[in-house]
Specification:
Layout: H1 4-10, E1 13-20, H2 26-36, H3 42-54, H4 70-75, E2 82-87, E3 92-97, H5 105-112, E4 117-123, H6 130-141, E5 146-152, H7 161-177, E6 182-187, H8 211-217, E7 231-232, E8 235-237, E9 249-253, E10 258-260, E11 264-268, E12 272-281, E13 284-286, E14 288-290, E15 294-299, E16 310-313, E17 320-330, E18 336-337, E19 341-346, E20 349-363, E21 368-371, E22 375-376, E23 381-393, E24 405-409, E25 416-422, H9 427-432
Length: 443
Amino acid sequence: MTTTTEQLSATTLLRFATAGSVDDGKSTLVGRLLHDSKSVLEDQLEAVEAVSQARGQEAPDLALLTDGLRAEREQGITIDVAYRYFATARRRFILADTPGHVQYTRNMVTGASTADLAVVLVDARNGVIEQTRRHAAVAALLRVPHVVLAVNKMDLVGYQEAVFAKIAEEFTSYASDLGVPEITAIPISALAGDNVVEPSAHMDWYGGPTVLEHLETVPVSHDLTACPARFPVQYVIRPQSAEHPDYRGYAGQIASGVLRVGEQVTVLPSGRSSVIEGIDGLGGPVDIAWAPQSVTVRLADDIDISRGDLIAPAATAPATTQDVEATVCHVADQPLSVGARVLLKHTTRTVKAIVKEIPSRLTLDDLSQHPEPGQLVANDIGRVVVRTAEPLALDAYADSRRTGSFLLIDPADGTTLAAGMAGASFASEARTAAVADDEGWDF
């Protein structure tokens, strides 16, 4: 009979991303995880073995389990984000294997934006390098709650504890300064399998968990109900049929919190108030609904509500603004310049906007800031001030990754230009905001 903890963890889902510099062994680690946890289908393994043999390799190259693009296989690098789904007896996983090259930083932002945990790999021979700091900063920026430092290739440094300890201390100090709440360091060899799924016989000085054990047991909170309720309206339902002549419902997915029949709510951006008269769920009317359920809400008053409006409890409704201050990661090849006219997409609402200011661009190598850069190019991360044509009900990204994030879109062709996070950049910035000046990031 399973324990209560095991029963709970068996029902949970962990989203995690891997990151690291080129040739640190990310794809090999992912392949080792999939292989040793018996999450690889036999035909997949046979295909990897065939490619490896054609290359003259004696053992299967497990990195090929994730490097799916032809260019990735030919160059031996990861270019695009590779998503893999697997499960153990204790937990289900969605894994995003992200590229290590500097020019693919935007891909890491994509992979880590929804992650509960990030695994940052470091080559034990090279230690903490600029790209390691860059990935730690991106994880902190995206408010990833758990970071694992996987010190890889320990077999190439004789499994020395001193090497691991030095790297772990340097990285932990750096990430902690950025406000990363939890950091776990694990010495591994992805190629040999040390401390990935099975404990290593070569590092008896290490008494912590293996990578998989930590992934299976790290506490993950998906309790969106603890946050204030946010209900972005996706669709207005008006059947106007003989059976439902006066039915007016507002359909969508609850982004966070709990909605209850009889609750006083505010509709934003109009600011009009009403009471929830009814909630229709998948199986019929319910008295209560919570995130991330998809429901239809009926209000007691006839209010002009359309797609993009936000319904929230009157007591905890967010303030609306037309001046959005945020950190953005520029993901398009075309630059984002001051004065650019864009579309801003927030939850189900899309409004016209203009980039008023780009106060600074962050240099992730050393966390210095370049003031007034004028524009952001691909992979740049910077602070922006965007003026919207209509008010938006934005939360701070630190409070809600769902309702605190947005996209900037090119109105000409629909290209996504940047991913934005409203409010303070790093947790450390928010903590020191009371004593910091207004010149951007304060470390």
